[in-house]
Amino acid sequence: MTSRRRGVLGITLGLAAGLAFGIGGVFVKPLLESGWSPGAAVLARISIAAVLLAIPGAVALRGDFRPLWRAKWTVLLYGLVAVAGVQFFFYASLERIPVSMTLLIEYLAPIALVLFAWLRTRRVPQRVVLAGSVLALAGLVLVIGPGGGGLDPLGLAFAALAMIGVCVYYAVGESSAEQLPPVALIAAGFVVGAVALGLAGLTGLLPMQASTAEVAFLGASAPWYVPLIAVGLISTAFAYTAGIASIGMLGSRLAAFLGLSEVVFAAIAGWILLGEALGPLQILGGVLILAGIVCVKLERSEPRGAAVVELGAEPVPVTASTPAVSADHSA
Fold first, then answer.
1. CA distance linking residue 176 with residue 291, whole number of Å
2. Where are the domains of the chain?
3. If DSSP codes are grouped into helix, strand and coil, which group holds residue 184?
4. What phi and psi, each to the nearest 5 degrees, are found at residue 130?
5. Chain-wide mean pLDDT for the chain?
6. Phi and psi torsions of 102, nearest 5°
7. 143 to each of 3, 172, 175, 263, how far by Cα in Å?
8. What does the buried/exposed string (b/e) look like for 199-219 if buried means 16 or more CB atoms within 10 Å of the residue's CB?
């Protein structure tokens, strides 16, 4: 596959993942309104996705599960931090600060990745990347619109931990391809995440309530399991699979900025399917986010004459005096 075709496919998959994640709220909202707690809904969707991906994951491993054991620390990191940790700290933050502020902090992950690469490599990002970061941040503020309310320090800390978990999602997705097929990593990570969230529920750290009553779904009445299967299949199994495939093709930096499209798609889905009207500032914010993604895509690659070694999301030139560094980021 040529580099151009690979890039187009990666962007398509990244946007598809953003759309799938973005419409997840449409599927989950009826459950929450019928008495489901957020923790129970998340545990159910991750468990459903784990079941759905179990066979594809086994097929990808060709029945040989030894790679899972060799990559056990990567799987644990992905499952505990990128899956369970993000969800747990997100909802822990919601109990203390406004949802808009929690979302804003969590979606700072792409900018955090840029800053991390800057600190790690001591190389100033290209101006187009910095411009894209500023545009994306401004767009996030306009789309999410942080409201008033107390800013509890612990709530802010929980939101920051959720954001770090999102960064881990992109970093592991970029570095794990040599260890495991993406679908196998996701399936195993979902199992680990489901177990962790289940234990959090049993210990009372994450409230778990569910209901078997029918729910209002897309303008009609439906059994409770219909939106649950939809969110498990589309907004979890497919979204994570498409997302990690996009990361492998584009790298963590561009894929993370593409992930911001989730905010735009969520707003559009809420407008079309739930009647939640978009204001002019939200539309402007969506445009700014897309402009930020375009800026990051315009980042110039290194000159062809210099070999590079990937460190996080920033390429480091390798010269005669620079020792080769492994690109394996597994923890």
1. 29
2. 12-126+150-276
3. helix
4. -65, -40
5. 79
6. -60, -45
7. 33, 28, 31, 7
8. ebbeeeebebebeeeebebee
Q: What is the pLDDT of residues 13-38, one digit of tens each?
A: 988 988 888 888 788 888 888 888 88
Q: Comparing 48 with 3, which gets the higher pLDDT?
A: 48
Q: Which of these, 80, 54, 116, 62, lies nearest to 241 by C-alpha position?
A: 54
What predicted TM-score, i.e. pTM, was given to this entire model? 0.79
Query: What element of type H or E holds 222?
Result: strand 220-222
For 315, the enclosing helix (H) or strand (E) is strand 314-318
Give the 3-state secondary structure of residue 66. helix
Q: Provide CB contacts within 8 A for 119, sequence distance 6+.
A: none
40-57 pLDDT, tens digit per residue, is 888 999 999 999 999 999
Helices then strands, counting H and E runs in the chain, come out as: 16, 4
Tell me what the mean pLDDT of segment 88-114 comes to. Answer: 80
Q: How many residues does the chain have?
A: 331
**The tokens 């890039």 sit on which residue?**
7
For residue 21, give both structure tokens: 């994640």
Do the Cβ atoms of 71 and 184 come closer than 8 Å?
no
d(CA 113, CA 119): 10
The encoded tokens of residue 300 equal 């110039």
- Please report where in the chains the tokens 């030139």 appear, as a residue: 317
Quick one: 242 exposed, middle or buried, by C-beta within 10 A (0-12, 13-18, 19+)? buried
